Amino acid sequence: MKENSPISIQKISQADWEKTPESVKRVVKSLIGRIEQLERKNIELNAENQRSEFDASGLMTDLFLRLRRQGFSLGVGEYLAALRAIDGGFADSTDALEQTLRILWCRSLTEQSEFEPIWQAVASATTQELAPPPPPPLPKTPEPINQPDPLPPAALVPLPAEERSSPDLVPLPVRAPFTPIDSKDSTELQTYYPLSRRSMIYNWRYLRRPVADGIPDVLDIQATVERAARQGFFLAPIYRRRERNDARLILFVDQNGSMMPLHRFTRDLVETAQFESSLPQAMVFYFHNTPADSVYRDVYLTKKVPLPQVLANCDSDTSVLIVSNAGAARGYRRLERIQATVEFLFHLKQYTTLVAWLNPMSIERWIGSSAEIIATLVKMYPMDNDGLSQAIDIIRGQSLHSHTASLL
Q1: Domain count, the chain
Q2: Nearest to residue 374, comparing CAs of 334, 347, 403?
Q3: What is the spatial distance between Cα 55 and Cα 43, in angstroms, rounded to a whole number?
């Protein structure tokens, strides 16, 4: 089958056109105008269809590769999520595709600002590729009247190059792609780590209370030498009993509220005391702001335990360490908190005097808050390497001169 040939208009010679009746001329001109109008409308419809049927997957892939080159942290997961969104009907148009990809791939305001120029560049390049070529101009019907005589061949002189007709060259609106600039700003966010996990493990080794209650199988060299020197001869070695660590620790940890940003450090303190130390017994109880009539066994403050029941397990050799900011985080000085803390310390010191307080806030933050007054009632130290070391010396029975009062 022969293919349909495009519509063309045959030229009419001057002699035939002059012989054509006026009524036929009007019909021919009307038909030619109608044909030109239909051709222009058909071209416009084809161009509109090509613009509407854009390749969403291809545009998304080009944008994905461009964003990765610009430093966006995009991987296979983000790419597959975009494909699922396109298949789900969230990219029916370029605007919908842009909004969908912005939601899926931009995680901050900075990335959104960088996304906009890259999207414009990729979308404009894709639109130029999909745009149809301009249609060829339709031949005009020659005017049958007032036609000048053709010039002789000698009169056909080529025009100079500068006078020849050339298409108008108009600069296209080009937007430079976004190029990130390396910032050399010296301002950096300094992360505050009051105490490392390694320092906690090291300091817990000093909390010891040796008790010789094992079998006598350890050679006592000094006692053996002294008895041999005193008797003048050696009969038998002297053995002493094995020692074990009999230190018992109770941790009271403030939970939630202003202590929430410090949960990582309090969790490390609890874990190192229970699982990475030589302590035979380390009990942990949690409270919120002040240990009132009851404390809790879990970090979610759901398993309540009466405070008298906890204190009943204490004796004069029990070490107690309290971890709380005592109101220094927000700088409040509240009478209710101070009174509740004084009452708790009063009941606690009836069982043991080996009590110390670790405050995650620096000493300068204590001034003007409840911590400034509570520090005069119990030995309080900042939660750093030196502060934990001094607090452990207090709860193992070694008397230290508290330096917090002079610093306050």
Answers
A1: 3
A2: 334
A3: 21
Whether residues 279 and 370 share a domain: the answer is yes
- Co-location of 371 and 396 in the same domain: yes
CB 217 within 8 A of CB 239: yes
Query: What one-character DSSP code corresponds to residue 1?
Result: -
How far is it, in rounded angstroms, from Cα 115 to Cα 109?
A: 10
Residue-wise pLDDT for 271-305, tens only, equals 999 999 888 889 999 999 998 889 999 999 999 99
Q: Give the Cα separation of 208 and 280 in Å (integer).
A: 10
* SS3 (DSSP) at 131: coil
Laid out side by side, the sheet with 248-254 consists of: 304-306, 294-296, 281-287, 248-254, 318-323, 355-359, 380-382
E strands within 288-402?
294-296, 304-306, 318-323, 355-359, 380-382
Which CATH number do you get for residue 265?
Answer: 3.40.50
Angle at 354 between CA 351 and CA 356, to 5 degrees: 120
pLDDT above 60: residue 7: no
Regarding beta strands 210-219 and 239-245, do their DSSP bridges make them parallel or antiparallel, or are they unpaired?
antiparallel
Judge if 204 and 234 occupy the same domain.
Answer: no
Do both 126 and 75 map to the same domain? yes
Domain membership of residue 108 as a residue range = 56-130
